Amino acid sequence: MTLLEDYVELIADLLKEHGEARTTDIARILGVTHPTATKTIARLRREGLAVSRPYRGVFLTEAGIALADRVRRRHRLVVELLIAVGVPQESAEADAEGIEHHVSDVTLSAFERYLKKSAAGGRSLGATGKP
Amino acid sequence: MTLLEDYVELIADLLKEHGEARTTDIARILGVTHPTATKTIARLRREGLAVSRPYRGVFLTEAGIALADRVRRRHRLVVELLIAVGVPQESAEADAEGIEHHVSDVTLSAFERYLKKSAAGGRSLGATGKP
DNA sequence: TTCGAAATATAGCCAAAGCTACATTTTCGT
DNA sequence: ACGAAAATGTAGCTTTGGCTATATTTCGAA
Fold first, then answer.
1. Residue B58 and residue A24: Cα distance in Å, rounded?
2. Which of A104, B38, B94, B95 has its C-alpha lying 20 to 30 A from B102's C-alpha?
3. Positive or negative, the Cα torsion across B122, B99, A93, A50?
4. Could you tell me the end-to-end alpha-carbon distance of chain B, in angstroms, rounded to an integer?
């Protein structure tokens, strides 16, 4: 189940890296068929997060860009937190995709504090690089 | 969006505490209307996780009980992990409800290891009781 | 330049999870 | 014992997120 947030995040990435976000690429990367992507993009438009013209790719509105930024930051923090407590990178990346949508602001702040402390001097816990 | 796993977990709780699991209670606790609960219970039956007779409550099959155990354990670990990294208990409980369904076995094992280490001697990180 | 392949769109289907409205069965109080 | 209230069930609608099949548009290569 792929959520609007994932689409927005991916579209932002594609726009930054390639200057355009094409329906087919979005579908392929998210692992859905292109009609599914098309339908969701229509919903993004309806909700004021993106604009698109037929056969001309997708672009984000201000609201879409703002959402993408928030989502990306949250995603990054979740992955880092998971790695910091010892989750293998691969699992961290994979699980974060599902987890991130359920992390509240309060929890996110806690993650941030933890990572800061952890970076500062917490050497006895989590992933140390040594088994 | 309430998943099968949540129903199974709740039904197990109700059965343990009250000896019965009634549709109305399930609906009320999960915050959905009773037709929604009824429909999901039908799905539990279809998938071999529960049995029920009209007007006579719901019971879990062996498979249902096994699932409930796994879900409960995972839920507990997720809450404990969140608290261990400094998430306030209330947020931990609330967010765990959504997060737990996306935690893989690998990640869960990592949580377990972290909590063990943390309990053993990791005193410098996470919730210490002191701000 | 034009034609075929690739990209995109559209139509229509499905299941899940939610709802309201209505029907039926139990249960409980008098 | 009976009738009303509570519990449960059923019907049918909605949205979301999938799908396949089919139509259309764009684009690149001959």
1. 46
2. B38
3. negative
4. 35
Task: Report the alpha-carbon distance of residue B108 to residue A95 in Å, rounded.
Answer: 10
Nearest CA in chain A to B105: A91
Long-range contacts, B37-43 (Cβ 8 Å, 24+): B37/B7, B40/B2, B40/B4, B40/B7, B41/B7, B43/B4
Can you give the distance from the CA of residue A104 to the C1' of nucleotide C15 in angstroms? Answer: 29
Q: How confident is the model at residue A72, as a pLDDT? A: 95
Q: What was the pLDDT predicted at B120?
A: 77
Enumerate residues 15 to 44 of chain B having a beta carbon within 8 A of any beta carbon in chain A.
none
Q: Are residues B49 and B89 in the same domain?
A: no
Model pLDDT for residues B58-84, shown as the tens digit of each residue: 999 999 999 999 999 999 999 999 999
Burial of B16 (0-12, 13-18, 19+ CB in 10 A): exposed
The CATH number that applies at residue A15 is: 1.10.10.10
The model's pLDDT over A50-71, given as tens digits with 9 standing for 90+, comes to 999 999 999 999 999 999 999 9
Domain end position, chosen among B65, B84, B110: B65
Cβ(A4)–Cβ(A47) below 8 Å: yes
Task: Give how far A89 is from chain B: nearest CA, Å.
Answer: 10
* Residue B130 maps to a domain: no
Please indicate, yes or no, whether residues B27 and B12 belong to a single structural domain of this protein.
yes
- Residue B129 inside a domain? The answer is no
Element spanning B52, H or E: strand B50-52
CATH number at residue B114: 1.10.60.10
Number of domains in chain A: 2
Q: What is the DSSP letter of B19?
A: S
Domain extent, residue A75, equals 70-120
